[in-house]
Amino acid sequence: MRMEIEKLAVFSGSRLGNNPAYVKAAELLADTMYEKGMTMVYGGGRMGLMGVVSERLMKLGGRTIGIVPEIFRNKDDEKMVSELYRTESMSERKDLMISLADAFIVLPGGIGTIDEYSQTIVYRQLGMMSKPSVVLNIDGVFDNLEKQMDVLIEQDFISPGNRDLFCFAASVEEAFVFLEHGLRQ
């Protein structure tokens, strides 16, 4: 069954990383979202990979929804997005991103990116939502994260039945197959 995704949350770093493949994947993600008519839901920043996706999508004529906590307030916030929400905290930001989006994709990023992704997994595990999330594992940047999930299952900290909560894709194309046609089991 094909899932219609109108709003895709993009969790990604505020840095570019040191592999040019990350920027290329971010650009391809923006191109694909535009072709599919998807709106980007994200943290509202213009730096790093999140900035690459949002700026490219906006230049193509696509829509972005930025969710910016007060601690990151910038006078130019409104110029960077199609629609802007402000929150009091990072937790509110994350909750609003999750509530607005139909699905989630994770680009390379740091602690904040992992936190956002983890929240979607927790919500799915608890049955609080069924929206899919996929980690875009460009050039194996998330190999160790995937391996760590398997170790936690082996060590009986995560139920083996929850392995299907974790989906890792090697390319933008593969990620969209998982998102639109159901996650691999």
What would you say about this model in short?
The protein is an alpha/beta fold. The protein contains 6 helices and 7 strands, in the order βαβαββαβαβαβα.
Keywords:
single chain, 185 residues, alpha/beta, Rossmann fold, seven-stranded parallel β-sheet, 6 helices, globular
Do you know the CATH topology? Rossmann fold
Radius of gyration: 16 Å
Task: Order the strands across the largest sheet as they lie in space.
Answer: 4-3-2-1-5-6-7
Number of strands: 7
Give the CATH architecture: 3-Layer(aba) Sandwich
Q: Choose one word for the global shape.
A: globular
The main sheet comes to: 7 strands, parallel
Instruction: Let me know the average pLDDT.
Output: 90
CATH class: Alpha Beta
Strand content bin: 15-25%
Alpha-carbon distance between the two ends: 14 Å
Number of domains: 1
String of helices and strands: EHEHEEHEHEHEH
Helical coverage, percent range: 40-55%
Structural description of this entry:
By secondary structure, the chain is of the alpha/beta class. The protein is built from six helices and seven strands; from the N terminus they run βαβαββαβαβαβα. It has one domain (7-140, 166-181): Rossmann fold, CATH 3.40.50. Helices cover 42% and strands 16% of the residues. Strands 4-3-2-1-5-6-7 form a seven-stranded parallel beta sheet, with helices on both faces. α1 (20-35) runs parallel beside α2 (48-60). The protein is globular.
